[in-house]
Amino acid sequence: MWRRTYLLLLLIRVYFAWSPSYLHPDENFQGPEVFAGKIFGYPSHLPWEFTTDLPIRSVFPLWPTYEVPMSLLKWFYTEVGQGNPPPQLVYYALRAGMFLLSFVLEDWAIYELVPSPRHRRATVVLVASSYVTWTYQTHTFSNSLETILVAWGLVLIRRIVENKHSSFFSYAVLSFIAVVGVFNRITFPAFLLFPGLQLLPCFQRKPSSLAVFVGFGLLFTSIAVFIDTSFYRPSASFFDIVRNPIITPLNNILYNSDSTNLAIHGLHPHHQHFVANLFQLLGPAYIAMILSLFSWPIVPSWMRNTRALSAVSATVLLSIFPHQEPRFLIPCVPLLLSCVRMHRSRIFLATWVIFNAAMGFLMGVYHQGGVVPAQLAMRSIVESNTAAQGIHTHPDATVFWWKTYSPPHWLLGPEQGNHTGQIETLDLMGIPGLDMIHQLDSAVPSCPFSSPVYLVAPTSATFLDTYTSLSDHHEPNLQLYRLWSYRKHLNLDDLDFGEDGILDTLKRVIGRRGLGVWSVRRRCK
């Protein structure tokens, strides 16, 4: 039974890994976007984390995760004489890589972390049935990589503690995981700080193991700093790197220690993680854990292990910082689910299935689900529209994106010879509608013209209705002609219950769900 259930859940994970939902801009702009321009020559836009004078993101953990598979694809296509691979192949290859990391390393680590053979299979199935495993863990997030590193860090700590004669190799591997984890995300130490205290007796009993751990830590740190400094200063010599290194975790800590910097990204109450974020990730499992706390002074069974200590202590430490997003707690999900022993309850199973099915389709299919397909199809859309207007030249095009997540520039792929001109991507984010129209009006040429301006926006935006249909009472200067649409797209940032009411808002956002691409033209007499 457990084996068949796990295989079914594995197929579900594959389905969501291939669904082009878009959970957060960081999954593109802090990973594939960084290397796509360098390796393939695709259009790319580096975010501020990589362009500031004091860079706060390290490329050391990104190199094996993204640059190596991209370089292998580049090598293969070069060998067969086909130039660069298409961006959709690169996109889904990276998704497949994240799926394999989740399927092999995460599930394996969880299996090892549960000491009871009787509970191992049920625990792996429970973790595999979480929508977080289906969605976040199959996307190119630094948080997804952090989850795997945290799990294997705990596995190695447990092996070392239980085996008093652990080899120096175990300490070296743990040191490597610690360095990669810190350079990947500065939140990583919060998950291993208290579980790592179990190593103190081992270091006291065998001081040489501490020397190995620290020595290899310094070695891997030096390599990480060298790679980062070489990336940000390509012309720097070895001695320049030694004299003036770029230490990205230190820059990250200094940046996030300033509350004014965090205010730019949004401030949250300190209880946000415990009250809202864990519930969003765990649903009924979190409610059951909270209810078990009322058995005090008896300590609930799920709190009596290192996995719970890691998750709870990390949540407490991360709650100190006022900027709190649910994805920061993704490593807590498999750790806390591995502590749950409620899989025999029919009520729990029913609510668990309903919760994860709903959240899975919401986050794994519909959440900003049209952004990636639209960007992948953009060159074809522009080329088809140009041909339909009878234009024989291929002018440069400007594409405005409104009320969507920032589109990944690298998905445009290479310029296709003389078929299309350059495509400029401008992200208007969520500016007011009139300001958006002003931007379009200033970009559309005067009459007569060939329309090189396009708008990508959710079809749920009723503000566009005036410009997409003729009205006897109002004839706007600009007209929008829909060229392409994608139905599986929900824009949750467009919820406006205060102005439209709950029912009307849901009817608009869900009933008119989708993402459209319009050609923007001036009304010429």
TrEMBL record:
For this UniProt record, give its keywords in alphabetical order, as a comma-separated list: Endoplasmic reticulum, Glycosyltransferase, GPI-anchor biosynthesis, Membrane, Signal, Transferase, Transmembrane, Transmembrane helix
Give any Pfam family that matches.
Answer: Glyco_transf_22
Supply one GO molecular-function term: alpha-1,2-mannosyltransferase activity
Q: What class of enzyme is it?
A: transferase
User: Out of the domains of life, which is the source?
Assistant: Eukaryota
Pathway recorded for this protein: Glycolipid biosynthesis; glycosylphosphatidylinositol-anchor biosynthesis
Q: What is its EC number?
A: 2.4.1.-
InterPro entries registered for this protein in UniProt: GPI_mannosylTrfase (IPR005599)
Transmembrane stretches, by residue range?
Answer: 168-188, 208-227, 274-296, 347-366
Per UniProt, subcellular location reads as: Endoplasmic reticulum membrane
Q: Which residues form a coiled coil?
A: none
Q: Give an example GO biological process.
A: GPI anchor biosynthetic process
Could you tell me the membrane topology recorded for this protein? Answer: Multi-pass membrane protein
Q: Which family does it belong to?
A: Belongs to the glycosyltransferase 22 family. PIGZ subfamily.
For this entry, the protein name equals Mannosyltransferase
- Lineage, uppermost ranks: Eukaryota, Fungi, Dikarya, Ascomycota, Pezizomycotina
